[in-house]
Amino acid sequence: MTDTLKGYKGRAREVLKSFKMRVWSEAAISTTRGNFQGVLLPRSENDDDCHIVIKLATGYNIGIAVDTIQDMKEYNFKEIQYKIPEREFPTSKDKKNIKLLGTGGTIASRLDYRTGAVIPAFSPGELYGAVPELADICNLSTEKLFGVFSENMGPAEYIVLAKAIGEEIKKGTQGIIIGHGTDTMSYTSAALTFMVQNSPIPIVLVGSQRSSDRPSSDAALNLIHAAKTAADSDIAEVVVCMFGPTSDEYGLLHRGTRVRKMHSSYRSTFRTIGDIPLAMVDRQKITPIREDYNHRRCDRNVTINPVFEERVSLLYYYPNMNPDVIDALVDLGYKGIVIAGTGLGHVNKLIYPAIKRAAKKGVAIYMTVQTLWGYVNMFVYDTGRDLMTLGIIPAENMLPEVAYIKLGWALGQTSDLSKVKDIMLTPICGEITEREPYNGYLIYQGGIPEVEEFIKKFHK
Questions:
Q1: Considering only Cβ atoms within 10 Å of each terminal Cβ, which end of the chain, N or C, has fewer?
Q2: How far apart are CA 393 and CA 44, in angstroms?
Q3: 24: which DSSP letter?
Q4: Together in a domain, 398 and 283
Q5: What pLDDT does 127 receive?
């Protein structure tokens, strides 16, 4: 028998039962705080029993405390259908063959406004039903490699992805899209940049900051931009394709080793750090911002090197960090440590002995900067010089997470620390740059007159 109050328990369930309400019904609710109208949504079994949740006509969800409810009436109900009706994805000889590899979650989804449900889409037919514009761009096929949240992505998944990309290139696939959660997308993009080198085709990671049940969702447009990039871009590298500005104007293509998620919820969360993006992309065109990228080719040659040493750690230095943190890693058999130090690459003297012991035991230790922008320079102060004497190696201007990924990849190839150093300090695809361009570091401080005047030119 279908549970008509899915997820509700305790007090909330009793209140809904007393008014003979059902999940997915359109409800008119009178409360001590006003009247509300919307679709009654299910709740997670881990949620409290003090609220009900409805979806307003605007598409936003609100919670209503059950103790404030005076009356509820159901005036429409439709049994939810969780599957998008599939439409055959049209193909054309004029369009490129693109493969979408899924890593988990929903690549795209559609909101059924009659029921309030978010319906996932993944197969070509479902994606065509959800985002029909894709058929104007490419011939699309899909494969779900695994289903994990992005925080659960790791070396095992990186290796599976790298191998799958290699197989697709051998088959003649002309562009690859990887659907990925945004939280750890930059780690995966760095890993794939190192594991998949000299690609003849674009490899595009894409996700969404806001789910498709929200009016401001970026899911569909990001997917359109990613498909456009995979099909038509000349940039044959691993890139992250996400919103540029907060508006729907265009997306940006960020190099896989210089990109970072910089805001927890903004649609324009991804930024190229210490450099500038590769290109802008919209529905009609791709506009390169720079020309020093690997260009698309017609061959099927690619270097796949899917290795990773998992016993590598990334430490964010903080004042009064104690040596036992590093000692514990060494005792547990860790082979590499990346430290995000202060300033030009500094840590306190308290952990010097632990660093020295780690280096003597053959642990590879690299220094990055927690400022994100800028270079490690350990020759300026005595602290830096002392740390290098102890065995720490400066990692130039690699982002901390990129240095972590590269060190794991390097140690996956060899335990010879001199060879590891050669791998780490030899640029592969933008993770180390000769200099930071003048416009590679831009952070505007809101509130000051000149910035506010500048902002008004674009946002009235």
A1: N
A2: 48
A3: T
A4: no
A5: 79
The structure's pTM equals 0.87
Residue range(s) defining the domain that contains residue 238: 97-304
246 is catalytic: no
| Residue 458: pLDDT over 80 | no
pLDDT for 61 equals 87
122 plus 183 within the same structural domain: yes
CB 247 within 8 A of CB 271: no
Q: Which of 261, 335, 383, 406 is catalytic?
A: 261
Does residue 460 have an active-site annotation?
A: no
Asked if residue 190 and residue 117 are part of one domain, the reply reads yes
- Residue 163 falls in the annotated catalytic set: no
Q: Yes or no: say if 73 and 20 are a contact pair by the CB < 8 Å rule.
A: no
DSSP state of 99: E
Is 32 annotated in the active site?
A: no
Average pLDDT, the chain: 91
Q: Do residue 228 and residue 359 come from a single domain?
A: no
Domains held by the chain: number: 3
Summarize the chain as % helix, strand, coil (round to 5).
Answer: 30, 25, 45
pLDDT tens, position by position, 444-457: 899 999 999 988 88
Residue length of the chain: 460
Give the Cα separation of 108 and 116 in Å (integer). Answer: 16
Catalytic residue among 106, 115, 184, 269: 106
Q: Work out the average pLDDT over 35-53.
A: 88
pLDDT in tens, 92-106: 999 999 999 988 766
Cα–Cα distances in angstroms (integers) from residue 231 to residues 94, 125, 164, 253, in the given order: 11, 19, 18, 14
Tell me: pLDDT of 373 over 90: yes
Catalytic residue among 103, 182, 229, 368: 182
Taking residues 385-412, what's their average pLDDT? 98
